[in-house]
Specification:
With 635 residues, this protein is an alpha+beta fold. The protein is built from 17 helices and 36 strands. It has a nine-stranded antiparallel beta sheet, covered by helices on one side. Strands 17-31-32-36-33-34 form a six-stranded mixed beta sheet, with helices on one face. It has a five-stranded antiparallel beta sheet with strand order 1-6-15-12-13, with no helix packed on it. β7 and β8 form a beta hairpin. The protein starts with 5 loop residues before the first strand and ends in a 17-residue tail after the last strand.
């Protein structure tokens, strides 16, 4: 949300920063890597930034200035000022300040959480003060919109100023504890070294071998993106602010997380975190369960302790079911299921102010509702059924939800052979109605748990392949374009649908086209919004040749990997994937643990304890590999 922005300027502060929009934070990027950013600003100022677990660290170098000023916004964030309900800043010494901001906005939804901060410099300022609106003052406190503090340092001889800041969603005192919990006397270089070690350990969970350095940069950039969120929001003492705005305390050794872009992340990122970081993933699942208990149910897009209600469907049951299936099991399964069930079965249940499943009564009574929303509901129903079966052995409940997930059939229109919204009375709507962030041609394929039935209903493999081929004529579709959108979540699984047809080789063909046409290592090298690691995780899975397709079912649909070798450090052992190629996009044959393997589907149980997957890649398609070996489909 951009709370507590900090900007260095040369010299003294002459005019009020107001909303800080007139301050140019940097003019060029010097370098960036995991946990590090270095930028230049006007008048030869260099800012270097890094982080610790609960603090942000900055080093400001005022190379050609006798004085340097650092400006900290308190009543300023990335929202329109009208959303900031309150703020406060207090300069507590000539090197420290603290305060809070309350209010903000995310994608048009008000986010009325309160966040506190404590900040310190490594040496005293020779001038300081605060501002509000257009007025600069020597007062040590200030409040309200467009306000903050400034510290001016003598940089005639000592050009560098170091800065640290920590936040808390509970209190200023907790922010101070968070700041104090990490080494106060460490240099910027040591902070950076420590941070780089942490990131190297995380990113070493997958080690790739390739002669293509550019693809290597792309891979680890996307892997890095996939590990940034969800983020810790509990304090060093275990406190966190609940969804009911009460303070809770986490058990010792466990963290509470937020920033759940669930409509996005259930498709890829949740599975990646579960297989690589099952402990942290389990804590994230418990965080979601805690949120549901405090808010009344699961959210779709949770920021801090607020359910924003962004996007549609009921995605959190899918994310929890996926995470459980792939190894994140240390959370309260019974409570998790309780809120899955309530959200899916009880109309007009809210998570805070947001209804969990709008039009649920219509969906239950008629078997259909608005098309793209409904397809999200059917995937969620299927995932709930899988969780009921796998986690709790509730066979009757599992059957109820898995049967109800087949409601997609109720909106198959045999006249136009597309999935198509209906009015409550059963009459067909215009086929172009009721699609969110995509068209009916994109959403047609969003029945990942029963693709065989979908393809058979359409007319069989040849008809489906023809439709898919047309769909993939373009890879760069925007929301209203009837082609594949490499940058938007509803399409992410579509290339692997060829693995449910008799032309499975086209899966690898399309995936490698996406790599080569839609991704680069340039600053503009992503096809869309990364959405808190969703796109990054897509790239990681596709690059190592295994992709999680079915909600709540642990397994992968395969494609030719990008790299000659990838070693994946799973919690139970090392999984080595050999034989990928950036130049040879087709699978000639496949072995798992030394045995020939002819299916395009790999069950998680085959590889979860480690092992070897050997691909033989080819520049020409082997059109018989994968034939007559059906991937899972649940009717």
């Amino acid at each position: 949300m951009g709370n507590f922005p900090v900007v260095p300027i040369a010299g003294n502060l002459e005019d009020s920063p107001f909303d800080m929009n007139s301050l140019e934070p940097f003019t060029e990027i010097n370098s960036s890597s995991a946990g590090y950013l270095s930028v230049n600003s006007k008048k030869d100022i260099t800012s270097r930034l890094t982080v610790t677990k609960r603090s942000a660290i900055a080093n400001f170098d005022f190379k050609n200035s006798k004085n340097g000023t650092i400006i900290i916004g308190s009543g300023v964030n990335s929202s329109n000022e009208k959303y900031i309900k309150n703020s406060f800043v207090n300069i507590t010494s000539n090197s420290t300040c603290e305060g809070f901001t309350e209010g903000g906005e995310f994608c048009g939804t008000e986010t009325p959480y309160k966040v506190y901060f404590a900040a310190e410099f490594d040496r005293p300022a020779n001038e300081l003060g605060t501002w509000r609106g257009n007025e600069i003052t020597k007062n040590l406190t200030n409040d309200g919109q467009n306000s903050g503090a400034f510290f001016t340092f003598n940089t005639d001889n000592n050009k560098e100023v170091n800065y640290r800041i920590a936040i808390s969603f509970v209190s200023i005192e907790n922010a101070k504890q968070n700041l104090k919990s990490e080494n106060l006397n460490t240099s910027f270089e040591q902070y950076l070294t420590n941070t780089q070690k942490v990131w190297n350990n995380h990113l070493s969970k997958i080690k790739i071998s390739t002669t293509n350095e550019d693809k290597k940069v792309q891979f680890y950039t996307n892997f890095y993106h996939s590990l940034i969120h969800p983020n810790i929001v509990s304090d060093v003492n275990g406190d966190y602010m609940g969804a009911d705005f009460k303070v809770y305390n986490n058990p010792k050794g466990k963290e509470h997380y937020s920033s759940f872009s669930v409509w996005d992340t259930y498709r890829t990122q949740a599975q990646l975190l579960a297989i690589l970081f099952p402990k942290e993933s389990s804590e994230m699942m418990q965080s979601l369960v805690n949120f549901a208990e405090q808010a009344g149910g699961y959210g779709r897009w949770i920021l801090a302790n607020i359910e924003t209600g962004i996007m549609q469907g009921d995605p959190t049951p899918i994310l929890i079911s996926n995470s459980f299936a792939f190894g994140a099991k240390d959370f309260d399964h019974k409570k998790a299921y309780k809120y899955m069930y309530n959200g899916a079965m009880v109309p007009r249940v809210n998570s805070q102010k947001q209804e969990i499943r709008p039009y649920l009564t219509e969906y239950i009574n008629n078997g259909h509702t608005f098309a793209s929303m409904m397809l999200e509901y059917t995937s969620s129903d299927f995932a709930i059924g899988q969780f009921a079966l796998q986690a709790l052995n509730k066979k009757n409940d599992a059957k109820l939800f898995i049967d109800r997930s087949q409601n997609w059939k109720n909106i198959y229109n045999p006249r136009n052979k597309w999935l198509n919204s209906k009015y409550p009375n059963g009459k067909w709507k215009n086929v172009e109605h009721d699609w969110r962030e995509a068209t009916y041609k994109n959403y047609f394929w969003m029945v990942p748990y029963n693709l065989k039935e979908l393809i058979d209903t359409l007319g069989g493999s040849k008809v489906a392949v023809k439709r898919l081929d047309t769909f993939f004529e373009r890879l760069d579709a925007s929301y209203d374009d009837p082609w594949f959108a490499a940058g938007n979540e509803p399409d992410f699984q579509a290339p692997w649908i060829y693995n449910w047809t008799d032309t499975s080789y086209k899966t690898s063909e399309v995936v490698h086209r996406v790599f080569n046409e839609m991704y680069t290592s340039e600053p503009t090298g992503l096809p869309g919004n990364d959405d808190l690691g969703t796109m990054g995780a897509w790239y990681v899975f596709a690059s190592i040749g295994i992709y999680p397709m079915i909600p709540g079912v642990a397994g992968f649909s395969v494609n030719t990997p990008q790299f000659e070798k990838a070693i994946v450090n799973l919690s139970q052992g090392l999984l080595t994937i050999n034989g990928g190629s950036t130049e040879a996009p087709y699978i000639n044959f496949l072995k798992i643990n030394g045995k020939k393997y002819k299916s395009t589907w790999i069950d998680w149980n085959l590889i979860k304890n480690g092992g070897t997957i050997d691909f033989e890649s080819s520049t020409t398609p082997n059109k018989t590999w994968g034939e007559n070996k059906e991937s899972p489909s649940f009717n």
